[in-house]
Description:
- The protein has 69 residues and is α+β, with helices and mostly antiparallel strands.
- It contains 1 helix and 4 strands, in the order E-E-E-H-E.
- A 4-stranded mixed sheet has the order 1-2-3-4.
- The radius of gyration is 12 Å and the shape is globular.
Amino acid sequence: RDLRRQVSFDLYAANGERIAAYRADFTYHSLELGRLVIEDVKSPHTRTLPVYRIKAKLMAAQGQPISEI
């Protein structure tokens, strides 16, 4: 439920300073999982790009992992 497109998330450094933003393709609340799901459609090439990998790791470190499709 609550499907949204092009949702932006702020990314923060360890000291709490905002350093970048990440824009997800889709977000929705999964009733099965009981949490917000963040999904991104990526080609095999794009998944390997350093900027994307860093943003994905920052999202996961902030407790918001990305589901890649």
